[in-house]
Amino acid sequence: MVLSVLGKFKGSLRRTREQLKSGLERVLRGRARIDDDLFEELGEILISADVGVAASERILDRVKSRVRSNGVDDPGEIPRLLQEEIEEILEAASRRLTAPEKRPPGERPRWERPEAGEGADEVPVTEASMAAKEGTGGPRVMMVVGVNGTGKTTTIGKLAKRYVDEGQRVLVAACDTYRAAAAEQLQIWADRAGVEMVGSHSGADPASVAYDALSSTVARGGDVLLIDTAGRLHTRTPLMEELRKMKRVLARLHPGAPHDTLLVLDATTGQNGLSQCRLFHEALDLTGIVLAKLDGTARGGIVIAAAEELGIPVRYVGTGETIADIAEFDPRSFAAALFSD
Amino acid sequence: MFDDLTEKLGDVFRRLRGYGRLSEKDVRAAMREIRIALLEADVNYRVVKDFIDSVQSEAVGERVTKSVSPGYQVIKIVHDELVSLLGGEGERIGFAASPPTVIMLVGLQGCGKTTLAAKLAHRLKKAGKRPLLVACDTRRPAAREQLAIVADQVPAPVFFGDGTDAVEVAASAVKGAREQGRDLLILDTGGRLHIDDELMDELARMKDAVHPTEICLVADGMTGQDAVQVAKEFDDRLGIDGVILTKLDGDARGGAALSIRAVTGRPIKFVGVGEKVGDLEEFIPERMASRILGLGDVVSLVEKAEAVIDQKEAERLEAKLRKEEFTLDDFLDQLRQMRRIAPLDQVLQMVPGVDRKMLKSAVVDEAALDRFEAIVCSMTREERRRPEILDGSRRKRIAKGSGTTLHDVNNVVKQFMMARKLMKDVTTGKLKVPGLPEFRR
Lengths: 341, 441
Ligand SMILES: Nc1nc2c(ncn2[C@@H]2O[C@H](COP(=O)(O)OP(=O)(O)O)[C@@H](O)[C@H]2O)c(=O)[nH]1
Ligand SMILES: Nc1nc2c(ncn2[C@@H]2O[C@H](COP(=O)(O)OP(=O)(O)O)[C@@H](O)[C@H]2O)c(=O)[nH]1
Ligand SMILES: [Mg+2]
Ligand SMILES: [Mg+2]
Known about the structure:
The structure holds two protein chains of two kinds. By secondary structure, chain A is α/β, with parallel strands linked by helices. Chain A has a domain at 140-286: 3-Layer(aba) Sandwich (Rossmann fold). Chain A has helices spanning 2-12, 14-28, 36-48, 53-69, 78-96, 127-134, 152-165, 182-193, 206-219, 237-253, 272-284, 302-310, 331-339, and strands at residues 140-145, 170-175, 196-198, 224-229, 260-266, 288-292, 314-318, 326-328. Chain B is an alpha/beta fold. In chain B, 54% of the residues lie in helices and 9% in strands. Chain B is built from 20 helices and eight strands. Chain B has an eight-stranded mixed beta sheet, sandwiched between helices. The structure holds guanosine-5'-diphosphate (2 copies) and magnesium ion (2 copies). One guanosine-5'-diphosphate sits between chains B (107, 109-115, 191, 246-247, 249, 272-275, 279) and A (148-149, 179, 231, 233). Chain A: Its main location: membrane.
């Protein structure tokens, strides 16, 4: 199982690796010394992978200082050092937040009960919210956010299937009430995954749809609620506020919710991805990134910058348009797949 | 609006003032900053390299003029070069000599094709066309429903066909267009990766079947380094006629525009700036160049400043200052010149010798400037030339005439006297002002 996921992951990163590897080979060929020129060319390789100028410089500075302190003088050592550095950045980010709890199929989840949410939105106290407050049970709520067209709805379909396969009872909420045919699209994914969708008419208040969806999930004893939201550019303050409101409403109804707020990033995104991470994180306290569309030629290096600068971990990668095209993100294999054969 | 780049270039050229020519060393230092700015804007690194090489040789040896600081001059050179690379303004969609015109929209998943189909229909309908949207995305869940909804917003009819074979749908739509009285067809194709052979082949077959008037590559304005690969592959396989960039309503710098233009040589025709049918703008190279450099409209300001503050005038003023002939009239003159370019604090930053960091804290109060102007205008010629003669009764008269208070008038006189003394001291070298280290030559 692990092997096949890894193999798939490696496959999807093959192009990236080939590019980087051939780049590394080109850089190292005929080079006897470690000098500034070498680091300049390495910087170019990182930049061409969308890591960005600032993050690349910091990464290479750290590699340089390791070269100095370890007395490394063989340029052939550099790829390993670079790989370790990137791996460490990605790992440090995911250490910050522990991965979602794994349970045997059928067993009830035991989510801990964090503090009640902020904000002053009035949410009526219902049986569902009482149950959630009193008991230790209740569903795990995951909000999926991001800019337009990155792959949020598709990711929800894939995650729903994944959690169903783990034996969990999953519901999805159609809180994108803006985009044309958003609910119809999600309904198709819900059918594919074999889960129930809670939705509303187009133009409805997304927070109230989320509220209804969480109530039904609790009432039906669901384990996981996946919330699809409308794409929005991170610079649109009122739309970001709408998401904050949704988050508050969820927390009122079910303390601790949403347990996850995942940002879906398009792997082809360049440096703007960092701005996306920054502003979505500022507004919503992200718990992770889903890097979608990694099956193209784009390298998604922006997640290294996001991990390095903001400490946001990558949780999943999307590798295609079918329901199985998702894999858990593993810093080690990501870094390894970038640099090893 | 003045950001990183102008600040950094200001630092690079701090020692260089209005004389001589740009040396290779100065230019090289400046180009390092330009390079970073372009990379941060997501221009492909190879494209950046070529660009820097060509601009660098152009900038070396340029005369440094007195009117605008060297940093801005270099920015102007870079900007102009970017504009010419980004290509001509007002590139339009070409229409077929014998209708219907067929526009095929292609691109990666989620880049904005379906939304754009409606936007184009909306715009061209206004121009008198009778558009028909064609649902050629047979794969994405609810693609047809989505197209139907956005078409309603135009409003424009949609052709669905049998909905199984995309090429088939396109072909029958084109066949039936004339009978339906439609002279413009917009084919909304499914998103696909440029490396997906099977799906790229589908587009090639569609092209052969319908001979589109234009094939437009739709690209997400936030795309990073990969833009060159995507554009090149679509162009190689299909031969694209134009490019449309979407999602430029956020803070993306849009360097992909330059990358795509560089590898395909095809014009960028429109930019998408929102999710609504009306959110489509014409592509303006100047604006895009400024955006990529992160400059706002600095460059047009530079041009205006160059036009307004001419070199001879600057020299005449400096001579006057030295001889203590600088009058309130001159002061007012300067003020008016600058306000024509407006806003003042932005202009001041471009004046040679004015330190940006000092200005950052000094907020220019435009209302105070209005008062200043009114007060000076209420003075006689003699009073403006020799403010020393302004006694109490003259000041009262001026306050009344200008609709200000005696206090305001006193302030203006005091400030002018101080400014004149300060400027004189600086020009004659009696005083060294930290922000103006080399004002005196
Ligand atoms: N190749 C590829 N396409 C994807 C992936 N994830 C999503 N897509 C496609 O990207 C487009 C936008 O996806 P969607 O889920 O509607 O994005 P949303 O607007 O963020 O909800 C659709 O055409 C999806 O099929 C992925 O991992 N790989
Ligand atoms: N902010 C913004 N969103 C856009 C723009 N163009 C398209 N979108 C959004 O991007 C997403 C994907 O657009 P769509 O037309 O479905 O892309 P397609 O998969 O290429 O057909 C949708 O949420 C659109 O509303 C734009 O110019 N600005
Ligand atoms: Mg969606
Ligand atoms: Mg579409």
